[in-house]
Design brief:
Blueprint: H1 15-27, E1 39-40, E2 46-50, H2 58-61, H3 69-80, E3 84-85, E4 97-98, E5 101-105, H4 118-133, E6 140-144, H5 146-156, E7 170-172, E8 178-182, H6 187-191, H7 197-211
Parallel strand pairs: 2-5, 2-6, 6-8
Antiparallel strand pairs: 1-5, 3-4, 7-8
Helix pairs in contact: 3-7, 4-5
Length: about 220
């Protein structure tokens, strides 16, 4: 069964997220305040799956990982290893282009305190499934955090116990796609030292080598 690849602007599958989005529209009418669409190439080799839009990041700007620290680290690293071109200016009109890559989130709407509930993750999984159905050239998925990792496995109908999350680990899935794990590139993780830029670059660099993506000169 074909699933929709993206929710509508006024998606009401999750009452808590719908109410929070409505409150943000009243407080910040000039923000995006809607499900955040995926960004990047239409048929990538690499799909990057995050957790959910940040309140003052993607929920404000309308582009994944744009306008907050997580985007600074993510897009700087993608530029370094040839998965992006141009410059990241923290706004959708900065001209940044992804190359052989695409970015999305397991949950498309901003959750309170950046914490989606299990039912919301499950409700939004249909959109991840729909997106995966449209990516015939996909060879790798980079999961940013355990929730994104588990969302990918659930979408493919795979047992979590067979593919445990661990930073830097690569999982060869039955469909030929490799699932790579990284701690989420959030400010919380980098401020506490759980994730360093070097650790994140190691994961992305490994994927670049595996996919044959060359670093810019």
């Amino acid at each position: 069964m074909t699933q929709p690849a993206a929710p509508g602007r006024d998606c009401d599958l999750c009452p808590r997220l719908t109410a929070f989005r409505r409150d943000q529209r009243l407080a910040h009418p000039d923000w995006h305040n809607a499900p955040v669409p995926s960004f990047g190439e239409a048929s990538p080799a690499l799909l990057i799956v995050g957790l959910a839009p940040g309140l003052r990041g993607a929920n404000r700007t309308g582009r994944p990982f744009t306008g907050d620290y997580a985007g600074d680290l993510l897009y700087r690293t993608l530029l370094k290893f040839g998965f992006a071109a141009g410059e990241y200016g923290a706004h959708p009109a900065d001209g940044l282009r992804l190359q052989r890559a695409r970015v999305t989130n397991a949950v498309r709407c901003v959750p309170p305190q950046n914490r989606p509930e299990p039912g919301e993750i499950n409700a939004c999984r249909q959109f991840l499934a729909g997106e995966l159905q449209t990516l015939p050239d996909l060879r790798a998925i980079l999961a940013l955090g355990a929730i994104a990792h588990q969302a990918v496995l659930a979408t493919y109908g795979l047992r979590k116990s067979l593919y445990p999350f661990a930073h830097g680990r690569l999982h060869d899935l039955p469909n030929g796609v490799v699932l790579a794990d990284s701690y989420h590139c959030s400010r919380l993780n980098t401020n506490t030292g759980k994730l360093t830029p070097a650790m994140f670059e190691d994961v992305v660099g490994t994927l670049a080598k595996r996919l044959g993506v060359s670093r810019p000169a």
